[in-house]
Specification:
This protein is an all-beta fold. Helices cover 0% and strands 59% of the residues. It has no helices and 9 strands. The strands form 2 sheets. Strands 5, 6, 7, 8 and 9 form a 5-stranded antiparallel β-sheet that branches. A 4-stranded antiparallel β-sheet has the order 1-2-3-4, with no helix packed on it. A hairpin with an 8-residue loop joins strand 2 and strand 3.
């Protein structure tokens, strides 16, 4: 098993304190042992806690897929929200090419993240 963290970290202010929160992609896979190699994917959200960083929470795909795991395709920040874009597999999609797009709005209330219902956009 292999744990992955990409260097692509996204930044934005969700609580209006003029300090950005950070979203970092993390995942783990079975190092190619099976066709559906991704075991888990998600974003870890970091926020300021005084002069330090603290984990605010984790974001995982909310749109369910029938074949393979739903992928996280990006995030945007808005006041009190993190808007997450997901790519998901429809029943006849090849492993290379998820054709479904969904957006889930995660609401920040204090130091808690709550997911909304995924909205299918295509």
């Amino acid at each position: 098993m292999r744990v992955i963290r990409t260097k692509n970290t996204l930044y934005g202010d969700t609580d209006g304190d003029h300090r950005d929160e950070a979203v970092a992609f993390v995942g783990c896979d079975d190092n190619g042992a099976t066709q559906n190699a991704d075991i888990a994917v998600g974003y870890v959200v970091y926020a300021h806690a005084g002069k330090n960083l603290a984990v605010l929470g984790s974001i995982t795909p909310r749109q369910k897929s029938t074949a393979y795991h739903t992928a996280l395709a990006g995030a945007e920040f808005a006041p009190g929200q993190i808007i997450v874009h997901e790519k998901w597999y429809r029943p006849n999609d090849a492993h290379c090419c998820p054709s479904g797009d969904a957006t889930t709005v995660w609401t920040r209330e204090g130091n808690r993240l709550t997911p909304g219902v995924p909205r299918i956009t295509s």
